[in-house]
Amino acid sequence: MMSAETSYSPPAPNKVLGNDDLVGEILSRVDSPTTLVRAAAVSKLWLRVASDRAFLRRFRARHPPRLLGFYVTGDWMPRPEFVPTNTEVISAASLRRAAGSVLHAFPEFSSPGVWDSRNGRVLFDHGQAPAAPDRYHAALLPDDDLVPSRGDDSVLYLFHAKGDKLSVWLRRMGDEQQLVAGEWVLRDTLSVKETCGHLVEPGPELASVVGVGDNAEFAFLEMGVGDNYFVIYLHLGSRKAEKVYQRDPDNDDIIQVHPFMTVWPPVFPSLDSDEELRLG
């Protein structure tokens, strides 16, 4: 029989799940921001730990945003095509349903296009007729083979494909989002043949850059010859390359690839007037 002087010791799980530091260690090991949001709904303590800014910085470093898929669009393509690439976070069927439901919302006679895709959101436009080739006016660059990539901390990257060489340049921007004085710095360079030549028979121009990821993390290259043109996903850090899309041989338009990434930061539950967790 327990005496009055004997202090009560809570069960071990309560000690763990009620400790901010231990909960933080547990939450930092979940596999995705989606799972983190679900875990945050367990209790107010877990929500407080998961939504803490310092914790989110550590979580992002361990689980950087992932590529879920990409949209392929072209000047004369009737509709963008969505291609799922990462089924570890969301199933390919779910991704296709989500992407398809958005595209089917446009009238059949319209020609929706993808202007941009960022942080889990897609910016569409649509018209009454197929888009004209000069619809896009985004930036004036010194060479048609330069493709810009947005970067964190006010950094601008440029991808340049010429011959066998793919180069990535960077330049930092000022507080007013103006380019500061100084030269472009070469961040990375690689041989297209050595990195991607085993996947596709290269044509005379070897490769063109049709899409890039933020912070110059990856690039989409179009390579091929004759009727066999493919889009290659190339991760710059690991040099991993793989074929992810084959162009329709009857379509010789210039295409663009827009990556579709996981959302960051996650949207957490909030507390209503009754102090109950609900999705915000």
UniProtKB/TrEMBL annotation:
- Pfam families in the cross-refs: Beta-prop_AT5G49610-like (PF23635)
Q: What is this protein called?
A: F-box protein AT5G49610-like beta-propeller domain-containing protein
Upper lineage is:
Eukaryota, Viridiplantae, Streptophyta, Embryophyta, Tracheophyta
InterPro entries (UniProt xref)? AT5G49610-like_b-prop, F-box-like_dom_sf
Q: Which gene encodes it?
A: ga07287
User: Which parts of the sequence belong to the F-box protein AT5G49610-like beta-propeller domain?
Assistant: 147-268
Q: Which domain of life is it from?
A: Eukaryota
